[in-house]
Amino acid sequence: MCRFPVRLPRRLLSIATLSSRARLLLACPVCGHVYEYGISNFEQVRFRTSDPFLNHRAVLYSVNFSCGTSACGKQAEIMAVGAEDISIAFLLNVWSHWTLHVGCRGGHQLKCPAVVYWEISRVSPRAHLPA
Predict the structure, then answer these.
(1) pTM metric for this prediction
(2) How many helices (H) and strands (E) in the chain?
(3) Distance (Å, rounded) from C-alpha 67 to C-alpha 107?
(4) pLDDT 10s digits, 56-90
(5) CB 112 within 8 A of CB 96
(6) Can you tell me the distance from the alpha carbon of 59 to that of 84, in angstroms, rounded to the nearest whole number?
(7) Which of 25, 34, 62, 107 is the most exposed place for a label (fewest CB within 10 A)?
(8) What does the radius of gyration of the chain's CA atoms come to, in whole angstroms?
């Protein structure tokens, strides 16, 4: 892990909305490595600037694809942060080089399929961390 402090929407990390089993697969926007994070990995930091997700300067994306293990059928959801003014095409080019250090919910090591098999959506800045 490069330990780059990835800023996420404040509401997503609200302690009141998290369960002890919450997990997040998060892609680092600097080094491109994807790791699993739990509640103990997060810390709330007071930034000098306002929340860029509420100001429409940053976007949290959900990148979904199926586990590559035959007959598994589990979906992987990786969260990735991007600037509002950067195109999805550019981000896909960057994201296609991710190094995954995570498994699917079935326990299989994930491998990135071709980007044509990815489903990408924006996550609301008022969303909750998935359990």
Answers:
(1) 0.84
(2) 1, 6
(3) 10
(4) 899 999 999 988 888 888 888 999 999 999 999 99
(5) yes
(6) 6
(7) 107
(8) 15
